[in-house]
Amino acid sequence: MVGIYMLLYQLTQWFEERTTLQKALQSGADEDNMSLLQLRIQEVEEQLHVHAERWKNAIQEASYLQFPYENPVWDDDMVL
């Protein structure tokens, strides 16, 4: 379960970096910096996709490990 939280944390970090890069791009960087920023944004978006897939797969794997909920069977001979 810790792995899921770590993946989610990393996913959040990638989103934050992407937001920061997009703000820097929108603030009007020079031509050289714009191309570098766009390249870095593309790399970050690829990492976002990879981490999102890992997170989705980890969630699915964790759900397979859970036991289905069962209602307790009340025994007629139970002493109250």
Write the layout of secondary structure elements.
Blueprint (H helix, E strand, L loop, with lengths): L1 H25 L4 H35 L15
Helix pairs in contact: 1-2
Structure report:
This protein is mainly alpha-helical and 80 residues long. It has one domain (2-65). Helix content is 75%, strand content 0%. The chain has 2 helices and no strands. The chain has helices at 2-26, 31-65. The radius of gyration is 23 Å and the shape is rod-shaped. The mean pLDDT is 79.
* Straight-line N-to-C gap: 38 Å
Rg to the nearest angstrom? 23 Å
What's the number of domains? Answer: 1
Instruction: Tell me how many strands there are.
Output: 0
Query: What are the segments in which pLDDT stays under 50 over at least 5 consecutive residues?
Result: none
Give the averaged pLDDT, no decimals: 79
Main sheet summary: none
Helices, by number, come to 2
The succession of helices and strands, N to C, reads HH
Shape: rod-shaped
Structure classification: mainly alpha
Hey, roughly how much beta strand do the residues contain? under 5%
Instruction: Please estimate the helix content.
Output: over 70%
